[in-house]
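User: Hey, my collaborator sent me this sequence without any context and asked if I could get a structure. I don't really work with proteins. Can you help?
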Amino acid sequence: MSKTAALVALLLLGTPAFGGSSQRISDDDKIDILRGIEAEYAKAKVPIPRSKKPLPYNSNGSFDPQMWMKVAQEYGPAARTGDLVQVTKITFEADRIVLQLNHGFRGGRHWYDNVQVGMGDPMGMPMPAPGTPVSGGGAAPGGTTIAILFHEKLPPVTSEELKKTLSTILDFDMHSATKDYVSTLPAPVKTAIQQKKAISGMDRDQVLLALGRPRTKDRQTIDGVDYEDWIYGEPPGKITFVRFAGSKVVSVKEEYAAVGGSTVPNLPAQ
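Assistant: No problem. I've predicted the 3D structure and written it out in structure-token form, which is a compact way to encode the shape of the chain:
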């Protein structure tokens, strides 16, 4: 087999990076992974499609880009290269670790919210080789799920090792960059993000950093001004209404809804 053929085989099929170990992942390992990765932000290094089923990704850092491309043609993008994603759930199965990004398939915005008519693939760009820089850099448009396949019973693995395993597609150092970005913001905005609150003057990305994805959105025009409301929370409990005019928050209102309280419907199933 030529070196080129061997490289292609490695990319498409992969071999377990942790293979051959007789040890098994421990509860302490799992706790370390949950503490070190769950709720963390990362920057997408390649286009990542939305998928109803977990996208297969080998523990040696390889995956099948053509297979991912086919999924993207059906469901659109979860993240473009450079977009910020969040690990919102981690589960451990017999031979794999499953990561939910941006609350999974039903999370994020509809992929067609920002679609532009034209020729090309549904991710808005050709699928590049891993690590190739392509445009992006905003909040990811959707969510998905990735299954890290070990091809054996789960071996011992730390959160840092898992981040390195994912380094072909995700850059977790972006979390540090996010901290640096937050540190440059005006003190009230920085404090609000740290306290997981929204305040007037924030933009959409800052609200996403503070509160995450809203349960639903509502748009209306009042006296010729277009408003967009982001609604967080479920009854019974606190409901938060974040109102945007243009790109900035103009008001934040909190109400308590009792059991059976009526607010607004959830975003429709995607």
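In plain terms: Residues 3-180 form one domain. You can pass these tokens on to your collaborator as they are.
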